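Sanity check record (used in CI):
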Amino acid sequence: MTRPVVLVVEDDRETARLLGELFSERGYRVVTAASGPDGIRLAHAEQPDLVLLDLMLPFKSGDEVLRAVRTESDVPVIVISARQTTRSKIDLLQLGADDYLTKPFDVDELVARCEATMRRTRHGAGLRTVHRVGELELDETARTASIGGAGLALTATEFGLLTVLMRGPRLVHPKPSLYQQVWGRSAGYEEHTVNAHMHNLRRKLRDAGGEDPIRTVWGIGYTLKES
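Expected output for Response regulator ArlR:
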């Protein structure tokens, strides 16, 4: 069986070594990059299953690496950074990061977040599960989505959010519930994380030429309009 690949883009040798050992012990094949250009090159060459990305990198910043990766892949990207402001987190999430962890990080929390993110990207087995709501179509098994026949290039997190909404159209989904279902945990709920990813999802629906069927229920969460 082919081992899943984790790409660690981190210029601090000690942190890169720690992450390498942490995921190697759990059965992953780990590849590392110590600069922004190397991170972009290896993301293209290795087609990893997960990317752990620092922001302060030589030659190209983590922000630039994330932009480059998102032009060709929906691979889950977890940012690990010393930046602690809410604005920084929102900016990275809107660029397409799936999650954000602040240094110094707790090892158990990092592993839990990575595993939750990886679960959202795995293809289902067995019968094909397809949801259709208005112009929207989502295939959980093939992990594809479209609106008005136009394909949607969604990150794993955006796909997870849309899946929850399409499983329960007309229902109002509170933000803490979305966080628990999509991120796989209830502790550490961050409203701005849900908002940022939902913003990206809705923008992509509009950019694809369809009508954005997601509605904000102020003070509570989101719902999906059926027609």
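The chain has eight helices and twelve strands. If this sentence no longer matches the regenerated tokens, the check is flagged for review.
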